[in-house]
Amino acid sequence: MTHYLIKLFLSAAVIATVTEVAKRNNFAASIIHSLPLTSLLAFIWLYSETKDSALIGKHAFGTFWFVLPTLPMFLVLPWLINKGMAFWPALGSCIAGTVGLYALTMKLLTMAGVKL
């Protein structure tokens, strides 16, 4: 249980840190946020619990492919907001678009014979 609580609080601290830094220095927060901290923490937690390097490798490979469909959101969200769309509808549109891109990615990976 202690290990779980450490994971929970450390992971939450990363998110809290990014949001607090963003209030003061968006440039620095953007750099911190762009780091794959969530993935790195997940790799560390998963390895510490399983000691399975092959599992980490498979997880990293899958993560690579599913990062790609999320990238357009980082361009579309500010574009929609700059065009006058309110935050929540813009975010909802980006989430819907990302879900569609996930589906397309899965279909393309299957067609290409990539096993995740």
Determine the number of helices (DSSP H or I, runs of at least 4 residues).
6
Oligomeric state of the chains present here: single chain
State the distance separating the first and last CA atoms: 31 Å
* Amount of beta strand: under 5%
- What is the typical, i.e. mean, pLDDT? 92
Number of strands: 0
Query: What structural class do helix, strand and pairing data support?
Result: mainly alpha
Return residue spans where pLDDT drops below 50 for at least 5 consecutive residues.
none
Report the C-alpha radius of gyration, rounded: 17 Å
Helices and strands, in order, run as HHHHHH
| Helix percentage range | over 70%
- Note the main sheet: none
Which outline best applies? flat
Write the layout of secondary structure elements.
Elements: H1 2-24, H2 26-34, H3 37-50, H4 53-67, H5 73-82, H6 87-112
Helix pairs in contact: 1-2, 3-4, 5-6
Task: Describe the protein in words.
This protein has a domain of 65 residues. It is flat. Helix 1 runs antiparallel to helix 2 and helix 3 runs antiparallel to helix 4. It is 84% helix and 0% strand. The model has no long low-confidence stretch (mean pLDDT 92). The protein is mainly alpha-helical and 116 residues long.
Explain briefly what this protein structure is.
This protein has 116 residues and is mainly alpha-helical. It has helices at residues 2-24, 26-34, 37-50, 53-67, 73-82, 87-112.
